[in-house]
Amino acid sequence: MLDPEMEFFMDPSRCIGCQACSHACSECDTHRGVSMIHLEFVDRAESTQTVPVVCMHCEDPACANACPADAIKKTADGVVQSALQSRCIGCSNCALACPFGVPRYVARIDQMMKCDLCYDRTSAGKRPMCVTVCPSGALAFGPRREIEALRRERPANRFRFGRQEVRTKVQIMLPGEGDALEMDVAELMAEGDADGRSSGVEGRLPDFVGR
Amino acid sequence: MGEVPAWKDDFPISWVDDHYVTRREFTKSLGLVSCAAFAATGTLAALGARRGGPRGAPARIAGVEELPVGGWKVFEYPEPGDPCLLVRLDRDRFAAFSQKCTHLGCPVVFRAAARKLYCPCHEGYFAAEDGRVLAGPPPRPLPRVNLERRGDDLWAMGIQS
C-alpha cells in the first residue's frame, strides 16, 4: 500500500532534458528496454525546453474509461496501473483518450504500456525510479510539507478542459497563485500561430512551461 | 457527467471492485464446477465399466505334468512381452496371474510354502488362489488369467483385468 503522505511532484520548469529518468525507467526488470516515462520537447524549433511525462493517475482515469477490454485498473491507493497483459488488446483507445498523452502503444508486444508510479517500489516505501535519478528536482516524491518548504512553486492537481475538470494524484508545480490549470485544447490544436507559422506536434503542449 | 450506465458495474475500474466476488457469483461457480466434476467422474466410471471382459486369444501355455506341485512357470500372455505367472497349487489346482505388480510393475514371485505371490520391491503380498491383495502397497488384485484344461495341456483363455 502506498503511503498516503508520499506524493509525486512534477515541475517541468526544472527539467533539463538529460534523459536520466527515461533511461532509469527502461532499466527496470519488469519492462526492460521500454521506458514508461517520456521526455517531450515543448517547441523543438524554438527552444530546448523539455518536459517529463509521467502518468498523472487521474481520479477518474480517461484511459480506463475508454478501454474496451477492461484492462486498466486503479488500485485502492489511487494508482492507475498499466494494462493487464492478459486483457490488453492493443487497440490504442487509451492512448487517444488520455488528455496528458501518457499511454503508449508498443507494437512489438501489441500492448499498451504506461507509467504505474513504480508500484512495486512505491508500495514498498521506495521512491519511483525516475525520481531517484532526476538531478534537477523536476521529479520529486515525498511529503507535501517538505516540497512546499523547498520550492517557490505551489503544487496543483486540477486541470480544466473546458467544462470538464480532471483531478490527478500526481501534483504539478505551478508558479504564482493558481491552483488549477486551464487547458484550452482548441487553442493548442490550432494549425498555425498568429504570424502564420505552423506549430506542429510540439505546439500542442500547454503553456505551463512558458513558451 | 450523466448517469453511470449499468454495465459499468460489471467492469469496474477500481482494482478492489474488480477482484470482488459476490456470494451469488461464487455459488454459481461452485455449482458449475461441481456439476462438471460429477459429469466427468460419471463419464470415467461409464468408460471403465464398458471395458472389462477377458482379453486375449486362447493359447497353450504348459503341459499339466510340466510343473510339480508348488512349482511355477513364467509365460507371455496375451502378447509377447506381457509376463504372466502359472502356479500349481495342488495336484489338480492351477492358477495364473499377470506377473506385473499392480503397485509399480515389479515382477512378483511365487512363495509356495506360504501360498502367496510376493513382490520384493515394496513387500507386497497377493493370495495365490485368487490374486487378491494381502499386504503391502498394491492398490488392486493381480489380473487373473482364465485357465482351461484340455487333455494334458493347460490353455490360457483370456486375461481378466
Distance between the termini of chain A: 39 Å
Mean pLDDT of chain A: 86
CATH C-level class of chain A is Alpha Beta
Number of domains of chain B: 2
The biggest sheet of chain A amounts to:
5 strands, mixed
Per DSSP E runs of 2 or more residues, the count of β-strands of chain A stands at 9
Strand order in the largest sheet of chain B: 1-10-9-4-3-2
The best one-word shape of chain B is: elongated
Helices and strands of chain A, in order, run as EHEEHHEEHHEHEEEH
Tell me, briefly, the overall form of chain A. globular
* Major sheet attributes of chain B: 6 strands, antiparallel
What does this structure look like?
The complex is a heterodimer of chains A (211) and B (161). By secondary structure, chain A is of the alpha/beta class. Chain A contains 7 helices and 9 strands, in the order βαββααββααβαβββα. Chain A has one domain (6-204): Alpha-Beta Plaits (2-Layer Sandwich), CATH 3.30.70.20. Chain A has helices at residues 20-26, 62-66, 93-97, 119-122, 129-133, 144-150, 185-188; strands at 6-10, 38-41, 50-53, 104-106, 111-113, 139-143, 154-161, 164-174, 180-182. The longest helix of chain A is centred in the first third of the chain and has 7 residues, at 20-26. Chain B is built from 3 helices and 10 strands, in the order H-H-H-E-E-E-E-E-E-E-E-E-E. Chain B has a 6-stranded antiparallel sheet with strand order 1-10-9-4-3-2, with no helix packed on it. A 4-stranded antiparallel sheet of chain B has the order 5-6-7-8, with no helix packed on it. The longest helix of chain B is centred in the N-terminal third of the chain and has 28 residues, at 23-50. The N and C termini of chain B lie far apart (72 Å). Chains A and B meet through loops of A and helix 2 of B.
